[in-house]
Specification:
transit peptide, binds ligand 3IX, THEM4/THEM5_acyl-CoA_thioest, alpha+beta, Thiol Ester Dehydrase, Chain A, 9 strands, membrane
């Protein structure tokens, strides 16, 4: 099987419509859900991926491999590395486009082993959109932003309505999460305090 995938993006795309209130370069992106395996603080063996906004509509994420993430002794499990990319790519889509979206397809190329104790620096780019389809890709560098590339990924996210999550997920927990996020966004946008008429 060839190592070379097809052209990317696979269809003709528009440049990504970055939201006018998307966080600026250097902004730290918070945890989107405390119980998220990718970024949440309340998951003991979670990846605890952390991200900031980079220049040129990129997101820079970091994840340190612990013994809880092993596949073979001393080495990261490929499925958990794919999870880290899902999280990093999803964070770029959610925070820069501010559109709810889910992963439709995620492709990973594992180029070098990733040892326990190493930190993967993931740089994600928004490659373009075609209607509801959002194409993103990322490179994962070992132990430094310019370290050797260990893993690369490409993904298609599909924009969905909020009802995707309420219909298929836990709607009560989601409403709480949505309210908290809205409050956080208003605070970031300087709209937290309404002036009485
Ligand atoms: C979780 C985030 C909460 C969101 C809150 C919002 C903002 C938050 C801000 C920041 C978020 C920060 C971080 C997020 C971090 C991580 C995110 C993790 C994301 C996940 O981990 S999420 C779980 C895994 N994910 C799923 O659980 C999806 C299950 N799935 C479905 O729910 C449906 O399958 C769906 C909706 C994908 C499509 O269904 P559908 O009926 O709506 O639309 P349809 O099928 O027509 O597809 C439309 C067009 O996409 C093309 N298309 C679709 N799939 C394709 C494929 N695989 N390959 C090639 N093309 C594909 C079609 O071919 C068509 O293309 P065309 O328009 O050209 O015909």
């Amino acid at each position: 099987m060839s190592r070379v995938s097809g052209p990317w993006p696979p269809v003709s795309v528009e440049p990504p419509a970055v939201h006018p209130k998307a966080p600026s370069p250097g902004t730290e992106l918070g945890v989107h859900f405390d119980e998220c395996f990718g970024c949440g603080d309340e998951v003991d063996a979670g990846l605890r991926l952390r991200s900031i906004v980079g220049e040129g509509h990129t997101v820079l994420s970091k994840f340190t491999v612990t013994p809880a993430h092993q596949g073979a002794p001393g080495l990261a499990h490929g499925g958990l590395l794919a999870c880290a990319f899902d999280e990093a790519l999803g964070s770029a889509v959610g925070n820069l486009l501010r559109r709810p979206a889910v992963t439709g397809k995620l492709e990973t190329d594992f180029r070098r082993p990733v040892p326990v104790g190493s930190t993967l620096h993931i740089e994600t780019r928004l490659d373009g959109t075609a209607g509801r389809k959002i194409y993103v890709s990322a490179d994962g560098h070992l132990d430094a932003p310019d370290g050797p590339v260990a893993v690369t990924a490409r993904a298609l996210f599909v924009a969905v309505g909020f009802e995707h999550f309420t219909t298929h997920g836990d709607s009560e927990a989601l409403q709480k999460l949505a309210d908290a996020r809205e409050k956080q966004r208003r605070a970031q946008d300087g709209q937290e305090w309404e002036i009485n008429p």
